[in-house]
Amino acid sequence: MSALPEITREELWQKIEDGDTFVLVDALAPMSYAHSHLPGAINLPPEWVDERGPRRIPDQDAEIVVYCSGPTCDSSVDAGNRLTELGYGNVRHYVGGKREWVEAGLPLERGAGA
After folding, report:
1. Which of 25, 46, 57, 86 could covalently link to 78 via disulfide, CB atoms 3.0 to 4.6 Å apart?
2. Does the annotation mark 68 as catalytic?
3. Among 42, 43, 11, which Cα is nearest to 29's?
């Protein structure tokens, strides 16, 4: 069970629509990320967090939302917990993940992205 605070699909979509400043982290494998990801997401699987996290997310006060494929995927929890351990103080978990996002008819981006 994750101790990370959660964010709903509606809240996340509103943040994207409003152009809020936050970091959306896709914790899935790079091939999955390249196939499709939520708009504006960066790819940061759990095994990359220690090495690439501080470089990709230099501001430890940044608002971060982590997700993966859905409620049964642990990668987002692992990545989010590790970011918290590294000192990031504002990490939330979008539990529904990519599956719920797609089922709701919301857009995805394709390709390598940022």
Report:
1. 46
2. yes
3. 43
Provide the residue type at 92 as one letter.
Answer: R
Answer for the pair 97, 9: CB distance below 8 angstroms, yes or no.
no
Q: Which two tokens stand for residue 45?
A: 């699987």
Q: How far apart are CA 104 and CA 106, in angstroms?
A: 6
Side-chain half-sphere CA neighbours of 69 within 13 A: 9
DSSP-derived secondary structure for 17-64: HHT---EEEE-S-HHHHHH-BSTT-EE--GGGHHHHHHHH---TTS-E
pLDDT tens-place string over residues 68-93: 999 999 999 999 999 999 999 999 99
Name the active-site residue from 12, 23, 24, 68: 68
Beta bridge partners of 24: 65
